[in-house]
Amino acid sequence: MRREGREDAPVYMISVAARICEMHPQSIRLYERLGLIRPRYISRRRFFSERDIERLRQIRRLTQEMGVNLAGVEVVFGLLDKIEQLQQELEQVKEEHRRATGAFLLPASSEE
Prior knowledge:
With 112 residues, the protein is mainly α. The chain is 61% helix and 8% strand.
């Protein structure tokens, strides 16, 4: 489970996010309905984090520059999320392995 960091803090209202990402607020609402982004709601208002802004920029690049449709964007994001999850799991396994093997290492002795 990921801790909420600075990049996850909800800071931008939809109008600001739209300006930053150079897209219409209605497009952002569509991406939310499709589950491509998940803004936080505070007092019934959407707020977007830096991570959301980066995701919106990725959507824009994929759709406008690469010609990927929204179903394709969903697949790409699913794969990216899976890669991130697997990387986190790999780091956990590496750490567990380090701890397990470290417990069996004998201190180097100066008398040989």
